[in-house]
Amino acid sequence: MNIEAIGAALGLEVKCGRESLGKNVTGGYTGDLLSDVMGNAKEGYIWITRQVHQNIVAVASLKELAGIILINACEPARETLEKAEAEKIPILVSDLPAFELSGRIYNLLTSGS
User: Fold this and answer.
1) Where are the domains of the chain?
2) Are the C-beta atoms of 94 and 101 separated by less than 8 Å?
3) At what angle do helices 55-63 and 78-87 cross, to 10 degrees?
4) How far is CA 9 from CA 5, 32, 53, 106, 113, in A?
């Protein structure tokens, strides 16, 4: 399943990286501690976080993540969006809390729809 399909299924708002919404999502990781994400997220995962600063883009790029979803209607900083556009990393926003969003994405990925 790609990011575009996940975004459509969950009503996520695309903030940047529209040209990369076709990236395949192989799993997910939920966390706000950058070092934890660096140590545990895998290539192709979608990252669910509350963080909005530009360092999330650096971590996503380093780990070759499919994209980033911000929870609780958090708005990314302007610098974050600029860096994500340059790195071709999609950033989407959800009104949902991390627990609920993670569960919904897990169900989408494991149901094959």
Assistant:
1) 3-111
2) yes
3) 20
4) 6, 24, 26, 12, 9
HSE-up of residue 101 (Cα within 13 Å, Cβ side): 27
Task: Tell me the per-residue pLDDT of 89-99, one tens digit each, with 9 for 90 and over.
Answer: 999 999 999 99
User: What is the DSSP annotation of 30-93?
Assistant: E-S-HHHHHHH--TTEEEEES--STHHHHHHHHHT-SEEEE-TTPPPPHHHHHHHHHHT--EEE
Cα 59 from Cα 67, distance rounded (Å): 11
| Closest alpha carbon to 1 in 111, 87, 85, 94 | 111
Name the amino acid, one letter, at 15: K
Phi, psi angle pair for 55, to nearest 5°: -65, -20
* Fold held by 3-111: 3.40.1390
In angstroms, the CA 85 to CA 5 distance is 20
Model pLDDT for residues 41-61, shown as the tens digit of each residue: 999 999 999 999 999 999 999
pTM (2 decimals)?
0.96
